Amino acid sequence: MPQGIRELKRRIKSVNNTKKITRAMEMVAASKMRRAVSAVLAVRPYAHSAWSILTNMARAFENYETPLLVAREVKNICVIVITSNRGLCGGFNSQILRKVNEQLKKPSLLKINRVGDKRIESKVADEDIKIDFITIGRKGSDLVSKLGRKIIAQFNELTYMPKAEEVRAMARLVMDDYAAGKYDKVVIAYTDYVSAVSQQSKLRQILPISKIDLEKQLAEMDIHADEYGLNEPPMEYKVEPDARTILENILPRLVEMQIYHAILESNASKESARMVAMRNATDAATDMADNLTLVFNQARQAGITQEIAEISAGRAALEQ
């Protein structure tokens, strides 16, 4: 067998083996995606209800001061970045990291703080804004390290299907630092799950708690609110023992829910992106194997034709 044909056979075998691997990874990602999407859909009604209650308590936002509602001029920012531990998930990591990098280069939006109708624009120069990071996922940690930024904590174990109580430690860390004045703003960078083929990178303010951001997030949530009775008109609440106590207990739960919800959205987006990426890789391997098989058959046919021509020429020479 000619050397070229043997090389083609080896390449076809290699491509087919790769195809089997990507096909298996696609099936695993599809299974994980179904579980992750189910978790997101399960938590959305609870998150929607919690945020609706808080937006209806707008007067409490304005009349009572708690550490998590205090808006200060932005000088120090904490950014929570949610990525994956591994690659092979299409543009999932690159999209969110690109969005974070853009904000680092031009932090004009990050410098704005708002609570209720208050809007505080920082007069600090962009280059003097201090930005620290909390990372969920090794890909985010790698980028932040390359950029020379400070990482105050890493939670790589939260990249897939965490429990709500597992998020509490990180939420408590950012709330304590904000209440102590270490940071003037806390934002979270995550990927919102829209569908299996569509995900959106977002940067959301979580501290200080902003009624505007909550209402915006409620409007963007991809659920049928009517099914859960969430489109009812604003209600008046009677609270006991008093509004301050209620706020001091419910606001930390809200921060925890925002972080937990963002992680679940990113999980669903990650597995969806990986499934699509592996499906595209499988299709590409199929096309490559078909093309190589065609070239192989053409080369083999050319070899057979040449052998037949040589035999015929030899026989003709003997007959003469």
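^ that was protein a. below is b, sequence first then the tokens
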Amino acid sequence: MSGASSPAGRHHLGGARSIGFVVLSVSDTHTEEDDVSGQLAKSLLTGAGHRVVHYDLVANSVADVRDRLDPYLSEVPVEAVITVGGTGVSSRDLTVNALEVMGGKALDGFGQLYRTISFEQVGPLAILSRATLFLVRGKPVFALPGSERAVRTAIEKLILPAVQHLVEELER
């Protein structure tokens, strides 16, 4: 098979459309000056031709994440969100909980694939990650772990190849 009749022809990955992102770092310990993973996310996105419409850093609490994301999700130039941090198993890792409270619809495949890729890098500790993808108010919100390696892996291997198609599907 080739061309439009093949699955790859119907469902493209990547593409040239510039997506407007929010990058929200969730941390009780970092500041904007030392938020290496959040800065990496911004760099990877802009390096791939996308726009970072907003970058913010909030405390790791359900209310703070929800209150910061809520107005961004109403903005037209915001088409996707990446949160960095707060996806572990400690009592202070609350990003996933905030997205659930916001009525997010989980797309389990993202987290499953992320943990599969992560397993190759960190072994069985990959099961400790709650990295996930939610649809909140019709926009994809990728919840990533806070480490640099995790951010690079998720953005390069999963988000960049699929985000344009995902956003286009959600706009239909």
